[in-house]
Design a protein that fits this description.
433 residues; alpha/beta; Rossmann fold; 2 domains
Length: 433
């Protein structure tokens, strides 16, 4: 039995994005008999509102699915932009440092920091060093690069300093993992040695999410005829998604008979999207749906929509992709050739250039009119999920490397950074995105 401490801003019961994966990882490790402690913020994502029952300005401790969870207070801005987003992350970095200092007496044997956010990483690294523990940094997205490239933060002259500090921090951890091959390449460019790299991809619940054999009950609830084609976007509605493309496509195709758009989710981008779709009879909006209805929800789609801005390519990998693939439905995404997302959807989706509303609408209309092609893509997507995204296989490989004896660079074999992708070769290739 190993004492494993994980820290990250997002955790269960958040059921989308990073919180979903961190929560499932901790629950899985606890079920394997490990003592798992999670240092996290109260749930607030993706609505950017702390959930009812968690609104307090002090620490809270709870048991959740066999995991000892310490909730750290933080400031959540109403409008997460620039300086307010930075202050939000710093507030968690400071409060989590207190919880990590408290955990020194617990003597963790492994410390894992999940990024976002890197603001908790220095204290996580210090705890590991003081405890003699392995320190592991897992990057779900490159938050600094994304913030700088998207203009969320105008660093000005401080940009070079911020990049240098990030590079210095990444090189301090025993192991740095991320979720795609393209993102591993970025780790190398940031100075992380190959023997310290690991591929730890996100996964899908391929047993809980399966292709529906009958019409989803959501069709009747939303007043959508059984024969209509549904284009579904589900998940976080933030700046990274390029949601304006959805509004433009819905407007362009408003007169197309039998084509409906369903947009489900929350976040700062939802308001502008609702305004863009105001008055369109072919559009439905819903909030995030309960986890127990996830299969019916994803099965509502005939076509999953996955827009992504060009300036975050290979800085993030959409976490919603795994569920889309598992649902066995066609996927229409935006990405440039050669990017991780484009690579991930080779043979199982349609990809058009980011920001091209006309190309996006044309590709959507072509899929809507071609049921056999949608069927072919859906079958390919499901097969890809079954071969490469099984949760137990991915987490078992992660556990093996997490608990392996620490080795210095001289002892580590060349290519050790690929250990977590030691599934069949086709799996590693497909999950490179």
């Amino acid at each position: 039995m190993t004492r494993i401490l994980v820290t990250g801003i997002n955790h269960a019961p958040e059921n989308i994005g990073i919180g979903k994966y961190t929560g499932e990882m901790c629950r899985w490790l606890a079920a394997r008999g490990h003592q798992v402690r999670m240092v996290a913020a109260p749930p607030y994502y993706p609505a950017w509102r702390v959930w009812p029952g968690h609104r307090r300005w002090w620490f809270r401790r709870e048991q959740l699915d066999g995991v000892d969870v310490i909730r750290c207070p933080l400031w959540v801005p109403r409008t997460p932009r620039g300086a307010t987003r930075l202050l939000h992350l710093v507030s968690f970095g400071l409060s989590s440092a207190c919880a990590l200092a408290y955990s020194l007496a617990w003597r963790p044997q492994v410390v894992v920091n999940v990024a976002p956010t890197l603001t908790s990483a220095p204290a996580a690294w210090a705890l590991a060093r003081l405890s003699g523990a392995r320190c592991w940094l897992h990057i779900q997205d490159f938050e600094l690069d994304a913030a700088l490239n998207m203009g969320i933060v105008d660093a000005g002259p401080a940009r070079r300093v911020a990049v240098a500090l990030e590079r210095w921090l990444l090189r301090r951890f025993d192991t740095v993992s991320t979720i795609s091959g393209r993102m591993l390449e970025r780790l190398g460019a940031k100075g992380v040695a190959p023997e310290r790299q690991a591929l730890f991809p996100n996964w899908a619940d391929i047993d809980g999410v399966r292709p529906l054999q009958a019409a989803s009950p959501y069709r009747a609830e939303l007043g959508i005829p059984d024969g209509a084609v549904v284009a579904l976007y589900s998940g976080n509605m933030s700046l990274k998604q390029g949601l304006e493309l959805l509004g433009e496509a819905a407007t362009r195709l408003a007169a197309t008979p039998g084509l409906y758009f369903v947009f489900g989710g929350q976040g700062p981008g939802r308001g502008p999207l609702e305004q863009a779709c105001a008055g369109l009879a072919n559009v439905r909006f819903l909030d995030l749906q309960p986890s127990e209805r996830l299969n019916d929800w994803l099965g509502l789609a005939d076509i999953h929509l996955l827009p992504q801005r060009a300036d975050v390519a290979d800085l993030v990998m959409p976490s919603k992709l795994t569920g889309m693939l598992a649902s066995g439905r066609a996927i229409l995404a935006t990405a440039h050739p050669g990017t991780g997302l484009a690579h991930a959807l080779e043979g199982s989706g349609v990809v058009v250039p980011p920001g091209d509303a006309a190309a996006f609408a044309d590709a959507l209309l072509a899929l809507a009119d071609d049921a056999p092609e949608r069927q072919r893509l859906g079958v390919a997507a499901r097969l890809q999920a079954e071969r490469t995204l099984a949760r137990d296989g991915i987490l078992a490989r992660f556990e093996l490397q997490l608990l392996a004896p620490r080795r210095g660079p001289a002892e580590a074999g060349e290519g050790e950074g690929q250990d977590l992708s030691s599934a069949p070769p086709e799996a590693a290739g497909r999950r490179e995105a």
